[in-house]
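Slides due. Your pick:
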Amino acid sequence: MQQLIIFLVLLGLGYFFGRMAESRHYKSIHSRETAYRKLLVMPEKFPPIDYARHDSRMVSGNVVISVDYFKTVAAGLRSVFGGRVSAYESLLDRARREAILRMQEEARRYGADAVYNLKFETARIGQNAGQSLGSVEVLAYGTALIPTPQMRAERFAAAQASH
């Protein structure tokens, strides 16, 4: 009986603190996505013709996110009955979006206008003998399109002429 109580307490704590951490992370993601909305990210293999005169540089962002205790238990129960494992879906959604944001931060440091050829790599980390997910790593990478110094000068001159 004592083990069942401990299990239920851990399950409740995992649910509460996991939801709280996930909610905080989503708030951070939403605010940063708004800040980077003007930095285009495209999965196309070749950049649009508008970016033909840009310099390019590979940029990347990666993140490792751990699975909380509640999600592990919920996924284990779901494996018994089958169906979607929504507990892991939100984990992967957060990981992908965070990796893209980190890639955009790197692109912004280089002064990029856009990132094209977006790709993802995903890996499972810290699994317990194949029993659970442990953590997930997501790497987002692409090619940043950076205006040349000449293009920056032209933009500056155009902006001065319009004022």
